[in-house]
Prior knowledge:
It is a single chain. By secondary structure, the chain is α+β, with helices and mostly antiparallel strands. The chain is 30% helix and 16% strand. It has 7 helices and 4 strands. It has a 4-stranded antiparallel sheet. A hairpin with a 3-residue loop joins strand 3 and strand 4 (127-135). The longest helix has 16 residues, at 17-32. The chain is globular.
Amino acid sequence: MGAYKYMEEVWRHKQSDVLRFLLRVRAWEYRQNNVITRVSKPTRTDKAHRLGYKSKQGYVIVRVGVRRGGRKRQVPHGMVHGKPKHQGVNSLKFERNLQSLAEEKVGRKFSNLRVLNSYWINEDACKKYYEVILVDPSHKVIRNDPRINWIANPVHKHRELRGLTSSGRKGRGLRKSGHRANGIKGGSYRAAWLRRNTMRLKRYR
């Protein structure tokens, strides 16, 4: 087995003494730093490389913390002026996953870079921590590399805000294929519903 395989096995056993100690110490360190921090190299080298990271110019790793838990409705004193159906304040859940939210926070902060992917690194009682892989689309090393220069196209600006990253697609329910994906044919379940419920008539009939 290569070195990355051993690293993968270590990260698989998160309840082991080694990793429990490491995660506890690192969580303390992350709490002392800013919520969004650029790091010099990935914490999980094997995972970063599996998700497309290369140790060369144009690639950036950023660590970000996201508050855990549901999304409380932002209303003054918990008063929703409306129908009883909409009176809920506390037990509401955010539509997207926290990883997608982490990518969005980083994408807004580093707006000149493109979000490639992200992965979990740690969590404590109040936050989850992710590392986000960013790519500089204006760097000549990136633009000259045929494996990654697709991300320099303008259509990939702020992919993370439009649910095009891996975690964003997961939140949209697009991880399925075959007969299980009938409800999301055409890009999303809304697109599938609209196509089936729209009457199309020929102009001259």
